[in-house]
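Data follows
____________
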Amino acid sequence: MTEESTGKAWMPNAHRLARDSYGRLVFTDESGTSHIGVVPAQAFPIDAPGENVSLLDADGHELVFIAQISGLDADARRLVLEVIAERDFLPVVDRLLSVSTYATPSTWEVQTDRGLTRFVLKGEEDIRRLRNGGLLITDSHGVTYRVTDMRALDRHSRKLLDRFL
């Protein structure tokens, strides 16, 4: 938990999550108080997605801590994951289809979990290695793409990527 943590952990039978008529996330605590417009914040969204999530009120104060999203009931888990997906735009690269040149800047055409896209890689320094074989690739517009595990990519994709690593 954070330094300013409330110390309150998610209690499955006492806490509830729902959306109001405006689509905002509403957290109801054990005393029955509803907090409108709560936001889930992950401590380590890239290295540990779904773990160490705090529900923050509209002022950014922690209301409750969730150790594992997988421990929530199905409806609460769905709501938390929906809101996280709405806030965090991090397309996952499934395949590299082509690169315009092996020198930078170069135009990359990739297949992501959100569809086919093209972007410009300004320099090799815009590719950052993560543990467990993952990568973060930032394009010329500041959009970040994730490769979950470069060893899991197809042979053609790995061959193209190896030229930049």
Notes: The mean pLDDT is 90.
